[in-house]
Amino acid sequence: MYNITLIPGDGIGPEVTEALLHVLEIMDIELDYTLAYAGDACYNKTGTTIPDETLSKAKKADATLFGSVTTVPGHKSAIISLRNELDLYANLRPVKSYQGINCLFDDLDFVIVRENTEGLYSGIEGYTKDGATALRVITRSASERICKFAFKHAEKTGRNKVTAVHKANVLKKTDGIFRESFYKIADEFPNIGTDENYVDAAAMFLITKPQDFEVIVTTNLFGDILSDEGAGLVGGLGMVPSANIGDNNALFEPVHGSAPDIAGLGISNPSAMILSAVMMLDYLGEHYEAKKLENALLDVICEGKVLTPDLGGSSKTMEMAQKISDKLRIS
Ligand code: ATP
Question: Has residue 118 been placed in a domain?
Fold first, then answer.
């Protein structure tokens, strides 16, 4: 039995969460859910976007599933608070092409490991006489920790190379430290190859030769931008899951936001949320169940009969969830 904290959030978050729960219900795995609140609706009810109770429920859980939240301007970001409070320092974003999805490339399977706790997301900003500045914080400890995570992930998943992405030719001190940390940690993994790209070149190589990447490790903002580019390579936001992992906690969420333009219409694609649960099951060591869930989703996508509009179909979110459940029942 696993204790899972569930944060459906706003917009399409509750819809894709409901679809996921419908699918998980018939799996051979016992999940005990604790509901928690965050985001815009939570702010309207409680005056905070991220109550202490939610943070403590997430800390106590074996894993947290997070739908999506609408950011309330001028208030704490719920997801950034969760990442910081739980020290979820590694953001893992797979870029994988699935048959049946309109991808730019049909043979991609790499992962972006983004440092999640510092860089330009440190939130240290100040006004100057004529504008404002933002502080880009890079430490050796956080850089070594994320690089070690990336090399271990490569080892664990049978990948042969880790590519560091940085801009050390311009950001000589901050990215100089990130680059040095990368090569220091690389020495501990003699069986894994290394490569490095400046971030601008990496953005181009993601389009021109993405097959060359196996694991990318990079700092916070670069990772955020490159992983949305990665999502664009493999069918868009409705298809891309992510994991936020620390030494004691983990949180799984689709890469997409709350999609207010389609919220309430019942047409959101549940795939990214379901693939986030696949990552969660893998994290919990339930590899067989993870594979089963992923295969059921892929079967439905490959058949192409019950798909949401963003995938070229005309089905509702829950119709797609039902079809995935049917596949699981007969598998
Ligand atoms: P937020 O402010 O919460 O980040 P957003 O609209 O800026 O919301 P996303 O929610 O990521 O950003 O949505 C970007 C676009 O992708 C929207 O047009 C949205 O409808 C579409 N989209 C995102 N997720 C899905 C999904 N699961 N299914 C279908 N379309 C989606």
Answer: yes
User: Structural domain tally of the chain?
Assistant: 2
Told to judge if 228 belongs to the known catalytic residues of this protein, a careful annotator would answer: yes
Specify which residues 244 forms β-bridges with: 91, 251
pLDDT tens digits, 184-240: 999 999 999 999 999 999 999 999 999 999 999 999 999 999 999 999 999 878 899
Ligand 1, closest atom to CA 271?
A: 27
Range of the domain at 289: 1-88+249-331
Say yes or no: 144 and 100 in one domain.
yes
- Are 130 and 190 part of one and the same domain? yes
In a domain, 244, yes or no: no
Ligand 1 pocket mutation pick from 256, 262, 276, 311 by most atoms within 8 angstroms of CB? 256
CA distance 138 to 262: 38
Exposed e or buried b for every residue in 204-239, given b needs 16+ CB within 10 A? ebbeeebeebbbbbbbbbbbbebbbebbbbbbbbbb
Check whether residue 100 and residue 81 sit in a common domain: no
List, for residues 33-61, the tens digit of each pLDDT value: 999 999 999 999 999 999 999 999 999 99
